[in-house]
Request: fold
Amino acid sequence: MATEALTDAITRSYKAEADYRLMQYHAVKVGAAEGGVLLAGAGEGFGILVNKPNLNEAARVVRCGCAKAYVDGTAGGGIAIGSYLKADASGHLVVTTTDNDNCVAKAEAASTAAGDIIEVFVLPGLRY
Reply:
């Protein structure tokens, strides 16, 4: 990645409903409790967790704008710049080309490996 300009984002704090100290840069979804967030499952998610909160601590979530995200570039033949991304069962982002999929972000870098961290643009409420 050539630059580190990840300050242009809309973020919000939520309450972590689990220990997410190892889940930074994963997709998250609305939690069971009011004001809470959980790790996103397949096809879920509305933002990217950008800190490392423990249970009941403040979870900072990018809702719109630039963020880093864990991706699985091995799924779907790789991630190209501009690919629309959805969450998989691990909260990693993968390419989607399926109508009506819940897109979490758009890739701003390419990846062909599992576990890469790339820059993405988080897209609020977008369906592919």
Observations:
- The first strand starts at residue 9 and ends at 16.
- The chain has a mean pLDDT of 92.
- The chain has no helices and nine strands.
- Residues 67-127 form one domain.
